[in-house]
Amino acid sequence: MKKTKEDILWEYISEKDIKEIEERFEELDNETEYRHIWDMHTFQCVENEVYMGGVYFIDGIKKDITLVFQTSQFLEWLNGNTEYMKEQLIKYINQIN
Fold first, then answer.
1. If you write DSSP's letter for every residue of 49-95 in order, what string do you get?
2. 61-70: strand order across its sheet
3. Which neighbouring-strand residues pair with 58?
4. CA 77 to mean position of chain CA atoms
């Protein structure tokens, strides 16, 4: 049987890593935090990680943020959503014109 991408990725994650991840998720609050990133200023791709950095404001204070994605998952997500993103952008542009 051919291995899936997920099977291959899971081979590189140890049981200790899985337990640490599960513990961190248990510690997280169930609330989702939303931030509008006003200025995207950083992009970097190293091995299987994509870094995107930007600036957001909270209570009038400028904060930097860096998001880190697995490159393989990031590309899979983009491949399935770029057309929808373009459609939404065109709709927005038409509304403001």
1. EEEEEEEEEETTEEEEEEEEEEHHHHHHHHHHHHHHHHHHHHHHHHH
2. 39-46, 49-58, 61-70
3. 61
4. 9
Rounded distance, CA 13 to CA 37, Å? Answer: 31
For position 30, what pLDDT does the model report?
A: 62
C-alpha to C-alpha distance for 78 and 43, rounded to whole angstroms: 15
Cβ atoms of 53 and 64 within 8 Å: the answer is yes
**Cβ-contact 54, 41 below 8 angstroms:** yes
pLDDT, mean of residues 27-54: 84
pLDDT(37) > 90: no
CA 97/CA 87 separation, integer angstroms: 16
